[in-house]
Known about the structure:
567 residues, alpha+beta, 3 domains, 16 helices, 25% strand
Amino acid sequence: MLEKIFLDLIEKIVQVQNSHKVSTEGDPFLSRNWEFIFSDFDGWLVLYCSTRKILGGYWLYPMLLPNDNVEDLKNELPEFNLHQPSAAYGHVMSGEKHWLEPSWGNFEDFKRSEIPLFFHRQYYGRAKGKENYCEFNQIVTHPLDLHWSEKHNSYCRTDDQGDEVEIIKIINHEDVSLILVRRKVFEKLLYLGDWSLVRYFSFTRFNAESPSYDSFTRELYEPKGYDGKFEIIRCKDEYVDFRGAQIERPSTPKEQLLSWKFSDNEEETEKKYAEFVVHDWKNKQILKDYSINPKKFANYFTKSDLPFETSPIFFKAEVLDKYKNNPDKYELDERTISCRGGWYLETYDINEYNQVHTYAVYLARLPYKEQLHWLQYNEEPKGAISKRSFQTDFEAKFPDEIPLLQQLQNSLETLGKIEVGKEGLTIWAPKGGSWESASKGLHYVNSENANQWHDFIIALANATNEGFPKKALSKIASKFGNENNQLGTLGLLKFILKTSNNEDKIPIIHGVLNDLQLKRGKGKAHGTWATPVGSLIDDANKTLQDVIHAINELTQRVEAIELPDDE
C-alpha cells in the first residue's frame, strides 16, 4: 500500500488537473497551481509524471544536462524537441554499415548532450500486464549503488542497519504514473557528473471536448521562484497549454554530499553515542552511564586518566538472539557479527558466566540505533573477559582450544573426503553445496530460551544428518549384502557398522545421530515442542560434543573398511 505522502501527491495532481472546472475566482483557467510538482515532498523529488484517464495531460520528463549547456538551453526554451529513447544504445545501420550508437548521439558528445535517466522498455516475455517496465540508466544506478527491489518496486540501497531504503520509487497508479527520487542522494549524482536536472513539462486544460483551436494567444512565462521558462498557449476559454522546462540544481553543499560522512539517513546529521556500564580496568573501576564517544577514551600511547578504548562492556547472552533469528540479514560468526550491507562488529566473545562482551572502541563504531539494542542487555561484569579473548586480544596468541563448531566443520569435511568407487561418490557432502549453506542458523545456545535450543537442534541436524548421500552409503551397504532398499541414510549407517564388525560403535555413532534426528522430529519443526529436562545450554553443548565424537568415530570406521570399487 502506498504511503500517505504519495497518495496525497496523486490526489493533488488530479485536483489540479480539474481545478479550473470548480473554481470561480479570478481566471482559474490560467491558474498556475500546477507548479507545485517542482516542490520538495518530504525529501522526494518528482522526476516523471504522466496522467492517464484524465482529459488533458500533466506530463513531466527529466534529463541530465551538462552545466556548461544550461544557458544555451534556456535561450531555446520554451521550445524543445525531446526524444525519449527506449534504450541507452541502439543498433544503427546505413546501407552495408552497422554500428552502435548511444542515445545522446555521438560518443564524443557525452559532455555536451542531455542524458536520459531511464528508458521505457517493453518485452512480451514478461507476465501479461507487465510487458511495459521502466529500466534506469546505469549512469544513475551504478554510482549511487542502487539495485532493483521486487519487494518495494523501487531502486534501493541498504542503509547502515542493513535495511532496504527506497531511493527511486516507481508508482503506477490508476490515474497517475510517477517516478520520484530522494533529493539528497540524487543531488550527489548531479555533483559527480557536473549536471543540472532539466524537467521538461507540459500541462493542458480543456473546457470543451473538441476545442476549436483557433485564435491562439501566446505568452512567455518566466517564474521568479525557480529557474525555468514556459509558454502559455491559449485558445479562447476552451483550451490552454503550459509548456516549457524547469531547471533544478543541488541545494545541499557539495562538500557535505560528497563527504564520507554522508548518510542516506537524512535525520542523522552527526554521530551519536549511547551510554553504557563500562569496566575501566585501567583505573580499576566500574563506570556507569558512560558515553562510548571515542573522545572519552584513550589508547595505550596516550598519557591520560581516561579509560582505555579496549575497556570491556558486558551484556546478557540474549543480546545475540536478534542476530541468530535473522540469518538472512546478519552473519553471526564465532567472534564477529556483520549486518548485510551495513555495520560490522570486529570482535565479541562469551565468558564463563555466559556474558557476551566486546570493547568500547568497537561498540562505538556501530550505528546509534544498533548501540541502543545492545544497551538493553548491558549489565555489570560478573567476572573477567573470556580466556580466549585475553589470549588473542591482549597476548597476541592463538587460543588453546578449537571452538566446537569449528571442530564439527573440520570433522565433517574430513569425513567428506572419503570417496566410494570410481565415480568419486563421497560419504558426506554439505547440504546446499557449502558449509556456509549447510550450517546456516547453527549457533551456540547461550540462554535457557526453548526457541534457541530448538533452532540449534534443527540447524545441527541439517548440518550433519542431511549431508549423508544415500547413493554412496547404499553402495557400501550392498558390499555387505544389504537388499533392503527402504533403509534411510541413518539406517544404512547402522547396517554398515553392524556388518563390518563395528557393532560396538553403533550406540556412539548411529545412536547419537539418530537421537539428534529424533530430537529434531519432536521439535518445533513438527509442532510438538519437546525439550529436555535441565539446562538447555548444557544439553546443547553435550549434544554438539557427542555429534563431533560420533563423526570422528565414523570416519575412523569407514576408513578401515575396504570400500567397493566399480566393476
